[in-house]
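Two entries, shown back to back:
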Amino acid sequence: LYGEARARITTCVGGMDAAKERRALSHGAHIVVGTPGRLRDHLERGALDLSAIRTVVLDEADEMLDMGFREDIESILADMPEDRQTILFSATMSKPIMSITKRFLNDPTLIKVVRNELTNQNIEQVYFEVKPQAKVEVMTRLIDMHHIKSLLVFCTTKRKVEEIVEDLQLRGYASEGIHGDLRQQQRSNVMSKFKAGVTTILVATDVAARGIDVSGLDGVINYDIPMDEEYYVHRIGRTGRAGMSGKAFSLVARDEKYRPKSIEGYTKANIEKRVIPSF
């Protein structure tokens, strides 16, 4: 609330009704939240006026650049007043992001959040050396053995997401997938079912999982071990929240067995190697 007036917030997201968004924008908005592609579309149609913008926030900047939004982002920023405040949030400060800060920010301040331990002590971190063709079998054994009722599974590609979901569903597990090719309505439906407990296993790529707001997860499984240590931190941080305990299992192929030690060095946390549980 601003005094007695309620702030008007308009959401502009690809995959939703663009005409409805344009009508909302025509009535005026204090805050506009949107994806770069849809915002640029509204700008080109004359439905969005940025001349009065005072603050712009670019969230998950590293992921948006990875998803190919750089041209859209630069076009949107170029249409804004130069005397605005610009704030970028990013898990990593890569060269493309730094180049954007040099072009669009005036004498910016860089703020880093640093912790001695990057992962929650409430999370039990374990890894197993597994043959690629046996990963689904091992994963289902872990789910049954630990009575996991709410699980987030990470893999590297959308094709792998679909394959894992199909394998899990054939085995009788209530699972759904989420990746970058899903329309917003499909994504919303998948998330609604997962939050309601209708779906107990959510399989996702890293990019699609950014911004997912779920609580009470029993565990996280790294079906594919991430090459970037920061991705590991983001992944397992979805469990063990609010003082609760959580489990993080990583399925490591033989040629990746050096990766857990590398992650340990980065996170300063112990990742225990265990024997695959028997059937």
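entry 2 starts here
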Amino acid sequence: MKELICIVCPQGCHLKVDEERGYTVTGNSCPRGAEYGRVELTHPTRVVTSTVRCVGGGYPRCPVKTDRPIPKGKIFEVMAALDSAELTAPVQVGQVVMENVCGTGANIVATRNMR
């Protein structure tokens, strides 16, 4: 049995997930907590946030993130890809910086306007 703290909402429920009984979740206050517990043990994902170099903008780096969660095991590969990325101002919020990053199906998008 694994114990987790749910991060879906601010309640922070203490979940217990029984792997031997079909990933049965207890301790959740809502259905989203049960889903989080199952997914976290079977296929954990995360939204990656970082920055990339930006030429000609007001700041040397532009904040970015994935537009959907990616498999947790791909985080270091995605970060390495971001290290080689470079934007040229102007950049708009939501602008796609990298498509289908590392074959995850997620795009890297800008989260700040850069003039």
